[in-house]
Every structure is written in structure tokens, then in C-alpha cells.
Here is the input.
Amino acid sequence: MITLTGKKISEGIAIGRLSFYKRDTKEIRRIYVKDVEKEVMRFQKARQKALQELRDLYDLAAKDVGEANAAIFEMQQMILEDQEIIRQITSIIVEHKLNAEYAVKNAVENILASASKSNKNYVQGHEADVKDVSTRVLRILARTWKDKMLTDEPFILAAGELYPSETVKFDKSKILGFVTVHGSTNSHTAILARMMNIPALIGVPVDLEELRTGMEAVVDGFEGKFVVEPGEEVKQQTEAKMREEAEKLKLLQELKGKETVTADGKKVHLYANIGSVGDIAGVLENDAEGIGLFRSEFLYLGKTDFPTEEEQFNAYKQALQLMAGKKVIIRTLDIGADKQVDYFNLGKEENPALGYRAIRICLKQPEIFKTQLRALLRAAVYGNLSVMYPMITSTEEVEQIFAIVEEVKQELDAAEIPYKVPEQGVMIETPAAVMISEDLAQMVDFFSIGTNDLTQYTLAIDRQNEKLDDFYNAHHKAILMMIRMVVENSHKYGKWAGICGELGADLELTDEFMKMGVDELSVAPGMILKLRKRICEFSKN
Here is the structure.
């Protein structure tokens, strides 16, 4: 029996036979070609085929895990359509008279080697996507490459590394769990695993060459353990734990339709985070009381131009109508940092997370902002809409926002277009916003605490950097003190305060949040019932 530990990225437990995902590798040889135009055309045909495959993968992923998480395949399409990358590849073919396979391999290696200096910000932190895209193109060029699974029966998947497109295309009914040697907790693959509720571990220090297909194994996403050839005692413990989890899920279903109220009578609003209208099915299925974070930036990602007012209006209107009077909180666009969009022309930044992003773009380019605000105010007529503004650092920013809202109202009045001014709040995700939260509470209707960025900025840690996983402590005393301060200041002026970051779903902190008096938690739809159970059991006494 071999017992190893890895990083937990998705809870659950499974036992089954091992199967290995092997990505065929083929030596890429440097071959001189006579007809460079034909070779360029060969590359372009492979690129177009790869683009179509990615569109198909997007459609598949959107159905399985929602449009927000499928957006990674739009990102990969952007890589394939990047003119600088295309230029580099064609230049190698034409100038050096070399084969397309070698040109792709060489250009991608150069891009990855200079990622930190690249003026294409989306390359930074997305090296796995670039590799995934190049592998796809090379496979198409070779025509003989095949991704191999060694079994068609239900299995535990083991691999050195998994790309997002590989994770999505697997038949999930056959995957009991997966382990990988490499990867980060913030990778796209990790995110997809959590969305698909597959028990998964990464960073497991296993020599895959020492394992054989068909070996029995256990993946424990609760304890972060990977056990190969478990003994009888471990198997019995695993099976007992699986029965226990199945029973828990069954019992959770009984909480549907019930209010989220603590044992001593405190009502807590339990909302869901989504990225698109397509995600609302999961919101309703899991009995969320509303939507606490609609990430509107996904309307901008994967496009070649800004979404129109009508496009946005129709999306917001549909969300409100589907929620049938339940609260829908829409965050204004949060472009920048790790969410790069070419047509915004944001330019290269040394520290994009600290740069030109979110509300800063909106205030610097008010026409973009006004288009979204017009769509939001028009949509507000059709349901219970609230709007929240991200990355706030000062009262002056809020004053500027309100001034622009007034301009939008005047424009709509002049055009005799029906509208409604929704509840307006701000996200608390910078230490500056925390420290002036008493002032902000007198200006806005509510607070929503974005703990992902708040933790990053407070601890001075890039949350996308896997090397810093061990230093990233979302339970840090400073973070909890900040949340408490924000809640107290909001209540001082009769306003409500919620949490929409990942920390809201952390069951280890639920009791602490209840003691603080947090009014609302917004989480992934799959966490709603688990949180409801925990909250309903809580009592200050």
C-alpha cells in the first residue's frame, strides 16, 4: 500500500481502478520545405480546425459547467487568433523555410520563455493554455496523434498534468476522481474540477512509471490523500465514508424550500455566484435565494468588440425574469488583472492586479461605463436588481459613479425610455475601502466583501502565483478583523453587508461570520445547501 498526499482542489471521495491519461508525444523534427506558401497554408488550415474544435469544446463546457467557466476556451481561441503569434509562426516558415510543426513548437517556446516580458498580458499566468493550444495544432498537423485513455470503464484518472480542454472532454460519468503530479490550486483545471464535483488532488508526488493500469486506488478530496493498492481496512473506511457522504447529500435535499435562519432566529440571505444567464439553472436547482454576484465581465470576454447596450440589456433582463422577483446583484465590469480583453487596449503593466482595472477603467472611459449603466437601469424595471461597483478605494470614486448615474438618468429621461434606479452598493476588496468603510456606508445601500482580492492585497500575495500557495492564508487574523470592521460599520448606518468571495463558502468560518453578524453569503450554487445546514445549526448561545 502506498499513501501519498497532495493539494485538495475538489472535495469528495472515490475508490476504483487506475487509468492513465497519456498524451502521445511525437518528436518535432526540423525539416526544410521548398514551397513555403503551401506550408503556411497548411498551418492556417490546422489553426482554423483547432479554432472550430475549441468552439465545440466551449459549447460542451458551457452545458456542463456554465458559460463563466467555459470562457477559458474563448481565451484559447484568442491565443489562436493573436496576430503576433501567427506572425511569429509564419515568419519562421517563410524566412527559414521550415516545416509548420517546427515553427509552431519554436514560436510557442519563445513566447513562453519571454512571457514575463510579453506585451500580451493574457499569456502571463496562462502558460498551460498556450501549451494546450499548441498541442492541439500540432496534433492536427501530424494527423496521427491520438490522446489515449486506457479504459472505457469507470476509473480514477492519473496524469502528469491535465489541460483544461482535456478535463472537459472526458466522459464525467466514467471518472471517479483524478490526481495529477503537476498543477496549481488556481488553475483552470482545478476550477473545472470543483464545478464538476469530481474529487481531485494535484501536486501528488507519485512516479507514474511505477504504477500500472488497473491498480486499485483511493482519492480522498477531504483529507488530500491518494492511496494505491489500499488494504482491506482502508477500503472499508473509504466505502463507509462514501455511504456517509451519499446520505449527507440526500439529507441536504430536505433543506430545499426552507429559510436560512440560525437556531437563535437570525435571518441570513444565501445567494449564488454566476458568470452568465446560463448558470441560473444551477442557482434554481440548488435553491439559492437570489444571485449575489453576477460577473458581468463575462459579457465582454471572448468577443472582438464591446457588447452593445441591447446585448447587455437583454442578458440582464433575462436574468431578472428567470429569477422571478428574487434579488439579482450585478457587478459592473471587472476587466483587467487576469481578465484581459484585447479591444480594451489596456497596454502592458508590470503589476496588472494593481493597475488599470475594474472601476478605474469605467471612470477613465465613461462611455463604456454609461453603456452598461443604461442597460442596467433599463433592465431594473423587470425585477429585483441591485448593482455593485468593484475595486473601490475612495469616497471620491463613489461620487464620480453617482454623477455618471445621474447623467444616464437624464439621457434615458430625454429619450423617454423606461428605467428604474436600482439599489447601489460597493465591493469591499481593498484595504483602503475597509479603512473608510464608515464613510462609504453613509453613501451606498450595501457592502459586498470580495475576499479573494482583499486577501491578495492585504497579504501582498499574487493569488495566481502557485509558488505562493503556502503563504496565501485567507484565514489570516488581519482578514477576519477587516471583515468584522466592515460589517460593524455597515450596521452602524443601517446597511447590510455580505461576502461574495471564496471565503463565503468556507465552512470552517461560517460560525465566525455568523458571530460577526454577516447578513449575506454568496457562493457557488453547489455550496448553497451545505451552507444552509451549517447556518441553521448555528446559535450564539
